[in-house]
Model the fold of this input.
Amino acid sequence: MKKRWLLVLGLLTLSMAVSGCGKKEESASASSAVVSSAAESETTGISLSGVEVPADYVPPTTLTDLTGNLNLDKLVTLGEYKGLKLTKEITEVRDEDIDDAVADALENTYVEVDRPAENGDTVNIDYVGTMEGEEFEGGSDTGFDLQLGSHSFIDGFEDGLVGAKKGDVVTLDLTFPKNYTEELSGKAVQFKVTVNKVQTTSKEISEEWVKANTEFESVEDYRRDIRVKLETQNNTDAEDTMEGEAWKMVLENSEVNEYPEEVVQYGRYYYDQLLKSYCQQSGITLEQYMEAKNMTADDYKEMQTAYAQSMAGQLLIMAAIEKAEGISAEDQQYQESLKELIEASGVDEDTFFSYYERFSVEQSLMLERINKIIVDNAVVTEKMVDAETTADTSQTEASATAETEDTQTEESAADSSTEE
Done:
């Protein structure tokens, strides 16, 4: 089964990522490295009264909960969703693509060397950071691979390891930048670093490298395997793109005659959750985010309403198709798909749903199922395209959605305390 279940409806029309749909562990580490200027500003006092979804709002757990009592025949004029004419554009794999994959593999495969470390080498290190003689949270790690000259750690850390050899213990007296986190900004710290290995990468592929690092015996066999994998990935990407385009066609072919308030309210709730999740991961308040984006409460409400109505429309059209096809999240096929998904996650059902909302999971699985119905009943033409054509198309699409990118949620990664 495809792993596209993490997508939700809003992504298909609103260019909004959905990293916030799952619960994310909060990091209490003092290391959350780069703090936006918005986070450093004081709260502006922007009033969101009447804009945010009430705190006591209870979101639905199934589409039936949300639309089961609605007259879908009256609310939705369902357009053509079978017999669509679709084009599956598969990007050709070029020799240059294989060369790039080989170069990437070489760059990420380390070879240990018995010499002092140089800029460009990757050292495997253990380090302990102390401030005023006490270890500070997020300032230590073991078995960390650090490329010297990458400027990923604070000034002086990487330079201090140039010339170190395997087994050396290096003490670094450093100062965090003034624009760092509140806890560490401008503070003097000391790192005790143990060098476990000095590593480099091969510049050119060889039979020896292939035998040592892959399951193949020759460069030719290795490159052939890369081609097969790239072709498989390009075919999967083409299918995903085609399904997205097919769903857009179904939305365009259908008409929502009325938007019930309870369905729109869920869209408002989901919009709020996206932005609040992004702000939480970024270490800023919603008000600070709005100030950084020059967004007023009226602007927020306008964007929230547009998002909510679009999501409501998609939910209603989905419900209408499910009714027409006689499918639901209550039937055996859905239950089997859900069971497979939970088993693949490696956790039990309760733990799984502590990370993901039931409603979002249901809609993702059901949308995938609806897309399969659409594609299986479509007239599909396959077309091979070159990489340049694909790149041009992607650029055009990116330009067309540039105005909505300000509301796109972004995944936030917690960096090591020594990282910039």
In short: The chain has two domains: 4-93+222-407, 110-201. Residues 4-93+222-407 form one domain. The chain is about 45% helix and 15% strand. The mean pLDDT is 84.
